[in-house]
Amino acid sequence: MPELGDSYLTVTYNNGITFLATSQPHAVYFFVIFALDKPFTWPHRERHTEEEAQLLAETIMDKPVTEELLFGEVWRRRTRAVVISLEECVMDHWHHGRIVLAGDAVHKVHPNMALGGNSAIEGVTRVINNIHNIMQTTKGPKPSGTALSHAFAAYEKEMKQRMRELMDISNMVAKMHTYATPVHKLLANWILPIANDRLFADHMGGYLSAGPKLNFLPSIGFTNGLMEWKEKPDDYDEKNSLKNEIRITTTISELSISA
């Protein structure tokens, strides 16, 4: 769709709804997010049909996505469409025995910040780093359940508060995008547009640079950005690196990691 470009991210604010579109040369991925009157929690779940999707779409056919494009045209050119419930949560329990959870299995955030997948990768990285740490003191390829429990507890401690902060930020942005209150509308339309772009860039850069790296792999030879990783580079033992990688791979194959 030429109105959405071939490599753009488009976000449209509106009362009670927001449009989010990512475009590629041969496809556009389009999201319509409706604000709920009230949240619902487990065990209550909502399931939706194709007929409901059509009825919802008909209520917003005349809503503008851009200055040249209405939602009705996007809907007319769809290849498929489904209605799902967006979940937001950071679970209390992340591991048990030799089972550890990562990604959407344990934390889910609103898609507007586009950090859900990144957070899943970060979580798995932290799991692997902590397994690597215990493998340095464990004889053989199979650490004890107690050792794994300590590793998983360390991963949970490192990640849980970070994900709660991200969930709060994503929730706030979602409220601004859907004009949840006059204050959110004021922030979205008049305060943030006049703020220095550097403030947002520094905030996001600070968040991302605090993420983990795979500690047992070298981090040399990469181009340095304006912000360095907050984690200091670890000494890389090239002689033992392959052995460590094999042991970690063997260990992970014996675990159950749900993401």
Automatic annotation (TrEMBL):
Pfam families: FAD_binding_3
Full protein name: FAD-binding domain-containing protein
FAD-binding domain span: 8-168
Flavoprotein among keywords: yes
Superkingdom in the source lineage: Eukaryota
Requisite cofactors: FAD
Keyword line: FAD, Flavoprotein, Monooxygenase, Oxidoreductase
Record family assignment: Belongs to the paxM FAD-dependent monooxygenase family.
Organism: Trichoderma harzianum (Hypocrea lixii)
Lineage: Eukaryota, Fungi, Dikarya, Ascomycota, Pezizomycotina
Signal peptide: none
Gene Ontology MF terms: FAD binding; monooxygenase activity
Oxidoreductase as UniProt keyword: yes
